User: Fold these one by one.
Assistant:
Number 1:
Amino acid sequence: MKDEQTKKTGVSRRSFLKTVTGTAAGIGISQMFNPALIQALEKGLKRHPVLWVQGQGCTGCSVSLLNSVEPTIADILLKVISLQFNPTVMASEGEIAMENLYAIAKEYKGRFSLAVEGAIPTAADGRYCIVGEMRHKEITMMDLVQELAADAGSVLAIGTCAAYGGIPAAEGNVTGATGTMDFLKSKGITTPTVNIPGCPPHPDWIVGSLVHLLTKGVPELDDAGRPTLFYGENIHDNCPRLDMYDEGEMAEILSDPKGCRMDLGCKGPDTYADCYKRKWNSGMNWCVDNSVCIGCVEPGFPDGSSPFYEPA
Ligand code: FSX
Ligand code: SF4
Ligand code: SF4
């Protein structure tokens, strides 16, 4: 008898898990689904809270993480990793939430991870992004990241906005939007920082990097501060349409089922990520299947990829 997932997607739970297993790289997500490993992580990570703060973003990074299907990433985050603060999913709000945030940071000084989502606006003393208030004093994203990052054991810049400034730092940038590493450097803060770009990043990249950080330390990073585990391979070099590119068989319209999509604006040749094998939407598809790669994980995104519909 077909299970629920088969009915919805035509892919059985078994073949879905096989897909995930087959596409995971290194400490892939499939290994994290192993119950023995989850139990081990549960013990090891219970005392390691993750505080997730949000600045200039669209919340897509949180949604990407929580959107995973089977098993849910939300389960892993809430039961395995001690996610203590995330404005999108937590129930508490206002001054109580802020007090709790600072109390956890104090209690676990040097041992918690700070996850930053969204860029940090630095113009006008950071007043373009007020993230809370305590004792009638407004707290800017700048203040929050500066204070918490200095006390954190590690920092994760989640999403291209947090990693490099992304969309808020695109041409114009009146708010002085800045990526986390640049911001921390400007403040002399040296806490180890890992970039997990993507607009939004794949849930596996977020959880995989976090678990690596907590169990094995900082993963190997490339020049752009990204784990090579997930961002070490060029999309074009591994694209299933590479043969068509080599043959000069080019797609002319997006609905063309065949052909290399370079003439339609594909930025695969300038982009490093494992989307071609990990795939998105629970392993169902990826950008090049339906559209083009717009280079969303690259430091120059979006200006460097624009216009999206023209070849690089
Ligand atoms: Fe940026 Fe996150 Fe793009 Fe959005 O909040 S990485 S705009 S998908 O989601 O920060
Ligand atoms: Fe390269 Fe994009 Fe063409 Fe694939 S579709 S071969 S990534 S240019
Ligand atoms: Fe981003 Fe390209 Fe991967 Fe799509 S295929 S998620 S645009 S890096």
Number 2:
Amino acid sequence: MTKPDYTDKIISLAKRRGFVFQSSEIYGGLNGCYDYGPLGVELLNNVKNIWWKDMTYREDIEGIDTSILMHPRVWEASGHVENFTDPMVDCKECKARFRADILDELECGNKAYKGRKAIKCQQEGKFTEARNFNLMFKSFIGPVEDSSAVVYLRPETAQGIYVNFQNVRETSRQKIPFGIAQSGKAFRNEINTKNFLYRTREFEQMEMQYFINPPEDNKWFEYWKEERINWFLKYGLKKEKIRIYTHEKLAHYAKAAIDIEYEFPFGWGEIEGIHNRTDFDLKRHSEYSGKKIEYFDDLTNERYIPYVIETSAGASRSFLAFLTNAYEEEEVTRENLDGSKAMEKRTVLHFHPSLAPIKAAVFPLVNRDGMPEIAHIIANDLRKNFRVFYDDSGAVGRRYRRQDECGTPFCVTVDSDTLKDGTVTIRDRDSLEQIRINKDRISDYLITKINI
Ligand code: GAP
């Protein structure tokens, strides 16, 4: 059964619960830019942290963090100055601008034709000829705004890795095959932003470049394709919502490319690309910098420029995929204090515990009899390991619902039995089961469940 289109509800929950806000909202917002609120920053950090841990806590991959501003020659060598363009058309009638290759996805800019696709306007001859628009944001370094001072905000994090290939290899003493990973901000002056966080002008990438012996490129391409699909599955993306798209028209640097796509409510969209970039980037940087970049294999006495298999995921797009994937509206059975049962609707985010922004909530059943004091001690103790929310307002059922909407996997309640025997209830967000354990064992229990 296909999931109902929850897009508007997800955007509304994201704002209401403090996941995502429009950038500069009090000034009317800035198109294509978003701010991550208290829960959003936790979720985004968790996405980046699990990626970092899974990609770099292995023998063959090193991490790096390179600057956003780089020498302008980097972008000439990479081909971005020449080729990083999208075709753009203007509507002669309403003056709106469109990316010409996705007109069937975009809406016409004229309010009088609400809901009409831009492709229709093109068919009616309303658009100018397409011209190429470079997506890199340009600025100037230092006080003088002339052509010798031009710098670009990086449109991908990959180039910072290529220009450091020799530095990392020499200092880490890695041998091929090995990879270098980095996550960080990237900027693209997209002609049309789209679908909330899906296509924005400022976003984060999580990229890894794996340097290999050229004849082994197919083997490693397949290896990384598998690894990366399994990564998304491991953290809960539903199998039927993931597919592979194989590119036939390739970017200027690629020999082979696939996209891992997720089925968002608005349709299938790329969340990560796996590319065989050959020796294009290292060769070009060698050429443009005049510095030799190559690898000597002392076992085989071979000297060569490595090929690169790139895994390039969007952190912001993965955030949107995990958020969308987690969202459910469900009917559940509520157990009342007198033991009777009732059906109740709830909105819940079924995040994998490693991704959940808040790992546990702690409630005193009532605000008296010493329960708040015990609950505070428990919350403070758990905070040594994870983010915890303390809530003492309203009925416990309502507190559960609030935590369901935040995706909190466990709720700990201090009640009258705690005063007698030191046990608390732990309620599981997904199964709704409640267990009783001693308050001294909560931390160990959660650490095992959350797998940290
Ligand atoms: N280094 C290769 C590279 O940048 P890409 O396919 O252009 O390849 C990789 O981008 C990933 O970055 C995409 O799969 C997507 O997740 C993310 N991404 C690209 N443009 C984006 C945008 N405008 N907004 C949000 N995420 C974007």
